[in-house]
Design brief:
mainly alpha
Length: 170
């Protein structure tokens, strides 16, 4: 399952980078770097957040401000999830922890690559990924097989010549 996701993510990112006909413009020179994160006071979090992060309480003040902010934001997000969403997140986290460090690094790089895409292109990648996930398993397997057989040049051209939609024979 995880391997399938990686193949799919690679396919989508490669297709997305191939779609980009024009180079991405660098950020404007006037854009200032993000200001440093401000420390998050333990007492400023809700009791639910504190309960969720209780293992960090004793060392909270020694954590870097950006780590405090990330943990607080993550706990807030967790608390807003449905039980089904939490279950899925736990499964993904378990899969992540089981990955070799090299694979984790590869995914981090792909995520960073995705974040550099323009918003419209990110949306196209998300839509393609969702279409892929909705395909029958046999069709996904066939696409993965085809992808593995392609040369790098063929993979790059995938996004330049999108396939015509398959008609349902029904």
């Amino acid at each position: 399952m995880l391997r399938a996701w990686l193949v799919c993510a690679s396919l989508l990112l490669a297709a997305a980078s191939a779609v980009a006909q024009a180079p991405v413009a660098p950020p404007p020179a006037a854009a200032a770097p993000a200001p440093p994160a401000t420390p998050k006071a333990w007492s400023s979090m809700t009791p639910q957040q504190q309960q969720l992060l209780h293992t960090y309480q004793d060392k909270w003040d020694s954590l870097p401000a950006d780590r405090q902010q990330a943990l607080a934001k993550g706990s807030q997000r967790w608390l807003s999830m449905t039980p089904e969403q939490r279950s899925g997140a736990q499964q993904r986290f378990t899969q992540w922890r089981a990955m070799p460090p090299e694979q984790q690094q590869q995914l981090r790089q792909r995520w960073q690559q995705f974040k550099t895409l323009p918003p419209e292109q990110q949306q196209r990648v998300r839509e393609s990924f969702n279409r892929f996930r909705q395909m029958p398993p046999e069709r996904r397997q066939e696409l993965r097989r085809q992808w593995r057989q392609m040369t790098p040049a063929q993979r790059r051209s995938v996004g330049q010549h999108p396939p015509t939609p398959r008609r349902n024979p029904h």
